[in-house]
Amino acid sequence: MNGIVLFDGECNFCDQSVQFIIKRDPKGYFSFASLQSEVGQDLLKKYEIPADTDSFVLIEGGRAYTKSSAALRVCKHLKGAWKAFHLFAIVPKFVRDFAYEIFAKNRYKWFGKKDSCMLPSKDIRKRFL
């Protein structure tokens, strides 16, 4: 099973992160859904993640990963030097997630918020659930 990335569809940074992943995932390993979508909410429920979560989520191999663990696992599948970021998984999770949470709490202030999800081009639309 390929990876499914759940992202905050209202966050400009999250939208840019999805675009970043798509450009570095030429084999199309990842599919995408916003946390706010029906598909996103169904997946959160299935994997017993609170419905009000606003964290980056990766579903892969029958498991759900959140926060820094999700981001680092995504890096492992990207082309180029981005794979090397997966090495940060050796940093204790509580340290990684502390930094992640500081960033996440400020992402709207730093990058802004939008009213709706972006509309992907036809060739990329098939990767959105």
TrEMBL record:
Q: Which GO terms describe its molecular function?
A: protein-disulfide reductase activity
TM annotation in the entry: none
Q: Which InterPro entries match?
A: DCC1-like, DCC_oxidoreductase
Q: Which Pfam families match?
A: DCC1-like
Name of the protein in question = Thiol-disulfide oxidoreductase
| The species this protein was found in | Pontibacillus chungwhensis BH030062
